[in-house]
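tool_log.txt
---
The assistant was asked to compare two proteins side by side. It first ran the structure predictor on the initial sequence, then on the second. Raw inputs and outputs are pasted verbatim so the downstream comparison step can read them without reformatting.
(1)
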Amino acid sequence: MITIVDYQMGNLRSVQKAIEHVGYEARISSDAHEIANAEKLILPGVGGFGDAMAELQRRDLVQPIRDFIATDRPFLGICLGLQLLFEKGYEGGSYDGLGVLPGEVVRFECPAPLKVPHMGWNTVQVQRQPPILESDVDGAYFYFVHSYYVVPEDPSVVALSTDYGGPFCAMVWRDNLFATQFHPEKSQANGLRLLERFALLETAVGHG
C-alpha cells in the first residue's frame, strides 16, 4: 500500500490512478497517524511553496513527514513535493521548507524566447542512476510544469538534470528518498515505469 499525502495542493487522484494502473494499491490520506505509519509515502503538489507549507503545518503533517523520511521506508516527492524538501523557497516571499535537504528553491531567469513557467516535455540527463529508473532513461522525455527549481547545496544528491536556459536539477536521490521536478503521472510510459519501480522497492533501498 502506497499512501499519498493530502494537503489540498496536488492532483492527488491522478497520482493514485497512475499507481493503480501499474497494479498497486494507493490511498489518499491527510491523517497524521496513517502518514507516519505508511509503508511507502508520496508527497505530490501543485501550487505555491508558502501556501503548501502553511497547509502542512495547519494539518500537523510536517513532523510526521520528516519522521517518515528519517526511516528506511521509500519516499517519493513530485514537483512541489520535491521543492518542499529543501530549506527555503522564494515564491512570493521567503518561506521555510521541510529542511530535509540543504538548499533553496528559486525562480527561472530564462533568456528569450524561453518562457516561464517551463511547461511541457523535456529530456533528462542521468547524473547518478537511481533504482527507480531504468538504465536507458538518459535522454528520455518527462512532463514538466513549474516556474521554480531546486538548487541543492550538495550536488551529490542530484540524480537527473534537465536543461531549460541552463541545467537544473530534475530529480534528487538520497538513500530512501526520491523526488522529481517532473510529473511521473503525466509522463506516460516513462513515468508509469518510474512509479512501478517505486512501488516495487523493498523497505530498505541502501545508500545512494
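(2)
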Amino acid sequence: MEKELPRQEDRATSLLHKRGMMRLSEFLKEGITAATISRMEEKGALNQLSRGLYQLPDASLDGNHSLAVAAKLVPNGIICYDSALAFHELTDRIPPYVWMAIGPRDWRPKITRPRIQITRFGYKEFDKGVEHHLIEDVSVKIYSPAKTIVDLFKSGKYQKAFYNSATGFANATQAMKDALRLRKATPAEIAKFAVDAGIWEKVVQPRLEALTVDA
C-alpha cells in the first residue's frame, strides 16, 4: 500500500502536466483516490483552484486562466458576452466575472470561485458560432467574434425594452466597429448570425450599414 500511494501521486502529477487542470472526478476515473489528492494538497504538491478542481503549483498561468477554470467547472458551457469579447481583444473592459452560456435545459451549477455569471441560451442560438481554444492545456469553448457581437446586440435589445438603456447597443456597436476594423469578423458573418437570431432588419442591419457604407 505504501508503494501504491507514491505511484498514484506520480500519476496524478503526470496527468496534470498533460491536462493542465483536473477535477476530482477525473482523478477517480484514473484510479487515483480522493485521499491521495487530499494528501498532495496538504503537502503543497497541487493547488485547489475551486471546489474539486486542481492544478500543479508551478503551472504557467495564461492571461485567460479564469476562462480555463470556468470551462472545467461547467463542461457544457460556452464563454460568451463580455468575456468572449475580451478574449478576442475587442474590448478594454475587464469583466468582473466570467460570462458563460448554457443550454435551455442544462444543469445550472453553484460556483463561488471564480465568479461565473451563467446565462441560458435557446436551442437555436446555443450551439452556433462556437470556437475551441486551448488555454493552459484545457479545451475552452468560446463564441466567435461575429456571434458574440450579435449576442450583445440581442442583449442590448432587452436592455432597451425593459430598462430603456442604450448602453448595450452602444457597446455592441463599438465591438462590431472594432471587429470589422481588425478583420476579426466580416459583414457577412455578422449578418448571418443576426438573421438566425431574428434581429437583423431592425437592430443590426442599420448599424452595420452605417459602419460599412464608406468602407
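---
observation on (2): The chain has a mean pLDDT of 92. The chain has three domains: 4-55, 65-143, 147-212.
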